[in-house]
Amino acid sequence: MANLYIKQHIFTWGDQFSIYDEAGNEKYYVEGEVFTWGKKLHLYDVQGRELAFIEQEILTFLPKYHISRNGEELAEVVKEFTFFRHEYSVNGLGWQVHGDFFNHEYEISDGNTVIASVSKEWMTWGDAYEIQFGAGVDEVSALAVVLVIDACIEAERK
Q1: Are the C-beta atoms of 110 and 100 separated by less than 8 Å?
Q2: CB 7 within 8 A of CB 18
């Protein structure tokens, strides 16, 4: 499976991301809802079909997000309580997310296999990230988890 690149739009109202393939063609885009309680993101293909919906659960001690596809909950991403490192569990898919989140260098794995690895692209205007997917990975589900982690990192920076 090919790599994808997330490019956050700067100077926009609300969250907007474009996601490109290796040839630079837009493959997906993300739009956030404005003026909502908690973060809400919609992942679309280039034809405008919604592929995933991400919603932050508010009033929780640690960050918690729900990922839905076709109106059904696919997974719940929860930040784990740890003292010296950040760790996220992806309940429903059996995945863990670990790494250096502040520098956008992390991996999603199922304990044995790398599902996806994310690294920040430096020297770009606005935030840009490269995502490398493991063989046979459901790209949309992994991409939704990456978007949740990005939302958590953004919230911690504010």
Answers
A1: no
A2: yes
Cα 147 to Cα 145: distance, rounded to the nearest angstrom: 5
Tokens of 7: 């490019």
- Give the chain's domains with CATH numbers: 4-157 (2.40.160.200)
Q: 39-92 pLDDT, tens per residue?
A: 899 999 999 999 999 999 988 788 899 999 999 999 999 988 776 667 899 999
Spatial contact of 15 and 34, defined as CB atoms under 8 Å apart: no
Distance separating alpha carbons of residues 111 and 89, to the nearest angstrom: 11
Higher pLDDT, 44 or 7: 44
Question: Distance between CA 43 and CA 30 in Å, rounded?
Answer: 5
Q: 54 has which bridge partners?
A: 41, 67
Alpha helices in 6-110 (DSSP H): none
Closest-CA residue to 126 (of 9, 4, 6, 30): 9
